[in-house]
Amino acid sequence: MGILLTWFVLALKKIDLASAAAVRLTKLTGKSEVPVHPKHFLTQTPWFTKYIKKNDRVLDLGCGNGQNTKKAAKIAKKVVGIDLDENSLALAKKSIRLKNITFKKVGLEKPLPFKDASFNKVLFLDVLEHLEKRDQALDEAKRVLVPGGLLFLAVPNSLTSWKKLQRKAGICSYSDPDHKIEFTPNSIRLLLKRHKLKILKFGYGKFDIPARGAVDVLGAFSLSFYKLVSAKRAKLAQTYPNEASGFEIVAQKI
């Protein structure tokens, strides 16, 4: 029974890896000029945008191909997106032509090349879990914020039923092979408290499901299907927050 469970979970886990294929497929199916995860087509006003004002200076830490950077820049006065991956930055520069965006190659494991209190808002979305020097990265994010500035943080939840099943089967439950850590609600709250970042809102991502990579692939072909499934997952996560794939947090520098 134990071996059968392991094989079953491994099979589902492999399907999860299809998310990487979904990124490439959005370009092949003509939905994007460059490879983009279909999640970025769900809305042009994701959860953090309602906090951004027209005179804000925004920093996007680990901006990748700049999809969140672009959405912030449609509201803010100035946005800087930084990432260490040259290929991602090249895609961002190729596909995004807003004049109020600057993209720079900067690693997050070292001090940031910005003065204290340079930004009103900082995006730190699905990045912290990839870093070894997480305390330093949070300190730097806080340092470049103005007093009272906001940090938007998205991190994965380690306590969903799907992840518990993976661990029961003896399989690493991280949703990305590059993750160094995943969080419980308590652990991320304590981490932010230690860095003197006050949580103003603690929200939830979408309901965690096995084989979501297959859903991502289908989304690359049909955005209407993808939006329908994503809306259902978002609703389920509000009903069952412990099953949310991640946390969406607004924290303030104090």
Provide a descriptive summary of the structure in words:
The protein has 254 residues and is of the alpha/beta class. The chain has a single domain, classed as Vaccinia Virus protein VP39 (Rossmann fold, 3-Layer(aba) Sandwich), CATH 3.40.50.150. 38% of the residues lie in helices and 20% in strands. It contains 9 helices and 7 strands; from the N terminus they run H-H-E-H-E-H-E-E-H-E-H-H-E-H-H-E. Strand 4 (119-125), helix 5 (134-143) and strand 5 (145-156) form a beta-alpha-beta unit. The longest helix has 17 residues, at 223-239. It starts with a helix and ends with a strand. The model has no long low-confidence stretch (mean pLDDT 95).
Describe the protein's topology:
Blueprint: H1 2-16, H2 19-28, E1 57-61, H3 67-73, E2 78-83, H4 86-95, E3 101-105, E4 119-125, H5 134-143, E5 145-156, H6 161-168, H7 185-194, E6 197-204, H8 212-221, H9 223-239, E7 246-253
Helix pairs in contact: 2-8, 8-9
In CATH, what is the class?
A: Alpha Beta
| Structural shape | globular
Order of helices and strands: HHEHEHEEHEHHEHHE
The number of E-state strands comes to 7
CATH topology: Rossmann fold
The CATH homology group name: Vaccinia Virus protein VP39
